[in-house]
Amino acid sequence: MNTFAALLQISLFAAGSNNISANTYADAYKETVDNGKPLVILVGAEWCPACRSMKTSVLPTVAAHGGLSSVSFACVNTDEQSGLAGKLLEGSLIPQLVKYEKTADGWKLTRLVGGQSVTAVEDFVRVAPQPVVSQPKAAPEHQAAVNASAISQAAKSN
């Protein structure tokens, strides 16, 4: 590999890692509310090897490929933001990628647990095109309130 290519890879890596750590949960949540982008959160810890790999290698590569451009993204550290992390995590395994995506039926929650490949994360964050519906299906009021409150509860605890 020539020197220029090596420097380019390093700069892409550095830019990617800066991009993924720049958004706080509150900023990403606000962006989701304001523009409807899905909210994707990496929940992990600095002491966790798989979490570090996701944050410093996998996600910067996904970002360099443009995979994070269609979502609002943030990282939540389980040690520094334990209350928020506790609301986002399912079980105790980390890392977890958590995605809230608004659908015609309300907020849909999906997650990836454990260390993941670039391809798996790119597939996970890819925004599926929403079908055009002539008359949108109304979600039951209680379901919409529960789903919306799950996101806002996590934001309030931050």
C-alpha-based Rg, rounded? 17 Å
Give the CATH topology. Answer: Glutaredoxin
Mean pLDDT: 77
Query: What distance separates the N and C termini?
Result: 44 Å
**The named CATH superfamily:** Glutaredoxin
- Biggest sheet, strands in spatial order? 2-1-3-4
Q: Would you count the extended β strands for me? A: 4
Query: What is the count of distinct domains?
Result: 1
Could you give the order of the helices and strands? HHEHEHEEHH
Count of helical segments? 6
Shape: globular
Helix/sheet category? alpha+beta
Helix content: 40-55%
The low-confidence parts are 1-19, 131-147
Biggest β-sheet description: 4 strands, mixed
Q: Please tell me the CATH architecture by its name.
A: 3-Layer(aba) Sandwich
CATH class assignment: Alpha Beta
* Strand percent estimate: 15-25%
What order do the helices and strands come in, and which of them pair?
Elements: H1 3-22, H2 25-35, E1 39-44, H3 49-64, E2 72-77, H4 82-88, E3 96-103, E4 106-113, H5 118-125, H6 141-156
Parallel strand pairs: 1-2
Antiparallel strand pairs: 1-3, 3-4
Helix pairs in contact: 1-3, 3-5
Would you mind describing this structure in some detail?
By secondary structure, the chain is an alpha+beta fold. The chain has one domain (15-126, 137-156): Glutaredoxin (3-Layer(aba) Sandwich), CATH 3.40.30.10. It contains six helices and four strands; from the N terminus they run ααβαβαββαα. The chain has helices at 3-22, 25-35, 49-64, 82-88, 118-125, 141-156; strands at 39-44, 72-77, 96-103, 106-113. Strands 2-1-3-4 form a four-stranded mixed sheet, with helices on both faces. Helix 3 packs across helix 5 (118-125). The longest helix is centred in the first third of the chain and has 20 residues, at 3-22. The chain is globular, with a radius of gyration of 17 Å. The termini are far apart. Mean pLDDT is 77; it is low at 1-19 and 131-147.
